[in-house]
Amino acid sequence: MAPRLTPEQFAALGRDLDDLRQRVLADLGEEDRKYIYDVVKAQRLLEVAGRGLLFFGFLPPAWLAGVGALSLSKILDNMEIGHNVMHGQYDWMRDPALNSRMFEWDTVAPAENWKHSHNYVHHTYTNILGKDRDIGYGILRMDTDQKWNPYYLGNPVYAALLAIFFQWGVMLHDVEAEKLVSGEKKWSETAAVRKRMWHKGIKQVVKDYALFPALTGPLFIPTLLGNATANLVRNVWAFAIIFCGHFPAGVESFTEEETENETRGEWYYRQMLGSANITGGPLFHIMSGNLSHQIEHHLFPDIPARRYPQIAPEVRAICAKYGLPYNTGGLTKQLTSVFSKIVRLALPTRSPRTPGGTVDGDRARRAA
C-alpha cells in the first residue's frame, strides 16, 4: 500500500526530484547529441536496407530480411526518435530536423494532434479518471472505476484490434469519439483535427501501399505485404510497450478530487504511482524508446530518454526513501498482468474505493 505523505514529505519529494532533473539537464551535451544522431543514422540505414531487400522479394529470405529491417526502422522512428523528439527532448540542440515543433514521424497520426493528446492531455492528467483519455483510449475498460456496461464484454477483442491497428487508434484518439457519442463535443469542433488526420493519413497510405510497392514493379504485391507486415510489427510492439508501462497490476489511478490543487511533489507522486517499468537489456530499452522506463519518463518527459536507465537507480532510491513502490518487472510478467486486467475488466466487476486499502486486489489506495 502506498502511503499518503505529509505536506512536508511531499515538498521534500518535489525538491529531490527537481534536483535530479536539474543535474541531468545541466549535464546534457556531446554524448547525447552523438547518441541521437547515431540512432537516426541506424534508422535510415535499416529503412534503406529493408526497402532495398524488398526489390528481391521473389526470394523468401530476402523478403523476410527486408521486412525485418523495415520493422526495426519503423520501431526506431516511432519509439526512440519520434516519441522522444516530439517531447522536446532534443530541442536544446537547435537542429531543425530534431525540433519538437517541426518533426513529423512515419505513422498516420499527425504530430500536431498527437502532441496535444499525449504531451498535453496525458502528461498533465496522468491516470486521472475522467481527464486522462489514455486510460482505455476511449475504447477499453482499464480501471474498476470506469462504469461497466455490456459493450465492455468485448474488451479482449477491442484490445487485440487496437494492437493490430495501433497507429490508426493513435490517429483517431484526438477526435475524442466518446465525447461525440455522449454529446459533449460537436462534430464541427473536430474540423481542424480531422483535416490534419486526412492529409497525414492519405500521405502515409500512398507511401506505404502505393508508391513504394509500385517502385518494385512486378513485386508490387510482395512489397505491399512487406510494408503492411512492418507496420503490423511496429503497431503490436508499440501497443505492448505502452500498455505495460501504464496498466499492469499495482499501477494506480486517481480522481479529480484527489488531485485538486496539486503541488509539485504531489504531481511527482502521481507519476510514480501511475507508471510501471519493464526490465531488459540495453537493446531492449532502445527499441522501446526507453519507455521501458515509464516511471522516469512520466517524471521527466523532456529529458532525453537515453538518460532514464542512468537515473533509474536514483529514482528507485527516492521511492524507497519515502516508502513508495517502484513497479517493475519483465516483459512477460507485465504483459500477462495487462492482459489479465483486460479480460477481468470485461466483466461487471467493481470494488469500492477503500481509504488506505486496495481496489480490485491490485491497486493500492491512499488515505484521504
Automatic annotation (TrEMBL):
Keywords carried by this UniProt record: Membrane, Transmembrane, Transmembrane helix
Superkingdom of origin: Bacteria
Disordered: annotated segments: 349-368
Bilayer-crossing regions: 53-72, 151-170
Keyword Transmembrane attached: yes
Pfam families noted in UniProt: FA_desaturase
Start and end residues of each Fatty acid desaturase domain: 62-328
The keyword Membrane is assigned to this record: yes
PANTHER family hit by this protein: ACYL-COA DELTA-9-DESATURASE, DESB (PTHR19353:SF84), FATTY ACID DESATURASE 2 (PTHR19353)
The protein, known as: Fatty acid desaturase family protein
Source organism: Actinokineospora soli
Taxonomic placement: Bacteria, Bacillati, Actinomycetota, Actinomycetes, Pseudonocardiales
